Amino acid sequence: MTMNAIIEVSDLSFNIGESIILRDISFRIRQGEYISVIGPNGSGKTTLLKCLDRIYTPQKGDIRINAKSINAYRQKALAKIMGYVPQTTGQAYPFSVYEFVLMGRYPFLNPFTPPKREDHEAVLDALRLTDMEAFAHRIMGTLSGGERQKILIAAALAQGSKILILDEPTTFLDPRHQDEVQEILIRINRESGVTIISSTHDINSALSASDRIIALKKGEIIFSGTPDKLIKNGLLKRIYDRSFVLMTHPHTNMPVVL
Q1: How many domains does the chain have?
Q2: What would the pLDDT profile of 152-194 be if each residue is shown by its tens digit?
Q3: Is the pTM for the entire model greater than 0.90?
Q4: What is the CATH number of the domain that holds 110?
Q5: Cβ contacts of residue 105 below 8 Å, gap of 6+?
Q6: Euclidean distance between CA atoms 163 and 182, whole angstroms
Q7: Domain encompassing residue 226
């Protein structure tokens, strides 16, 4: 086990019938890292994230969280460590924002007693971290897609999780909300030490936000490393089977993929 590794994945494989979705996936993630998972559609990104959160059970391999097999955790114990934000569906939930985020406290709540002070404090902290305090009494169905995505993140944060797994969190959002969601994720990673594992099709956000990037193709890892190494040696063309234009951003001097 690598020192300070919070997640270790070893020889993970997942099949649906005769179709191989993931094949012999192995990697380690340290506490506080920001990891982006990229790759073309059908490469296995969503399946990998669902295996990490135990939504799916792989046919082969092992996932260890804090040096303990993921299968050894009770569901509430795992939820205190790891929060999951799925792809947005546009579903309108018949709850207020505050009520919805409070549901994120389910690992700590008892169905026979009311929420405690620390539960309400966790909800308020999560709303503050996501800049959504002013929306506490709004009904979820009245929110825009970007606002709803921030509340899904807030609900995951209310769990108290130090690992946050997000499946394409900015998909279908307009540019302003894409930027706002990305800024929130960077802030909670840098300021609160939350480990972020996020799949994305936005290569530029992955380059700018990530400590490391994992690239999948046809269910296999074909790159795992720092953002600066991703843009070298034609790796992007190998991942996506197409050419890209690279340039330097005029204000940040960061590489930009066109």
Answers
A1: 1
A2: 999 999 999 899 999 999 988 999 999 999 999 999 999 999 9
A3: yes
A4: 3.40.50.300
A5: 115, 119, 122, 123, 158, 159
A6: 16
A7: 5-257
